[in-house]
């Protein structure tokens, strides 16, 4: 049915990451997701259209599902950047701006390590061991998709 088809192409647009969260008086690692849902439906005139229920006003369209998701991603980014710009314009000069959590994609960290002259010594089940030949230091890098910048 059309409803089954519509539900079958609801897809996630973002990625998962971790963030520290205060809980019961202490900091514990919690999963925090930066993901958005695409609800994609066939357009009567052909192709597809999509909305994102988490970001009011975000919509996309395209000839294919991938093109439609890409269009929706662009709309989400534009809306969130615009909202951030609006908020920043109203801040007083003495307002403090800091990132709450910094994350880096594992592949980006690996690229930085290689550029710095480091090389992979070995892979284990839970981490990779990288060596800096200049200093001889060996560091364990967790095998997560995203890694806190503080580890980099």
Explained architecture:
This protein has 152 residues and is an alpha+beta fold. Helix content is 28%, strand content 36%. The strands form four sheets. A four-stranded antiparallel beta sheet has the order 1-4-5-6. Strands 8-9-10 form a three-stranded antiparallel beta sheet, with no helix packed on it. Strands 2-3 form a two-stranded antiparallel sheet.
Features:
single chain; alpha+beta; flat
Kindly provide the radius of gyration, computed on alpha-carbon positions and rounded to a whole number of angstroms: 21 Å
Class computed from helices, strands and strand pairing: alpha+beta
Shape: flat
Estimate the helix proportion, in percent: 25-40%
Number of strands: 11
Largest sheet: 4 strands, antiparallel
Distance between the termini: 49 Å
Number of helices: 3
Mean of the pLDDT scores? 75
Q: Please trace the helix and strand order, writing H or E for each element.
A: HEEEEEEHEHEEEE
Q: What strand line-up does the widest sheet have?
A: 1-4-5-6
Residues in β-strands, percent: 35-45%
Unreliable segments (pLDDT under 50, ≥5 consecutive)?
Answer: 1-12, 14-33
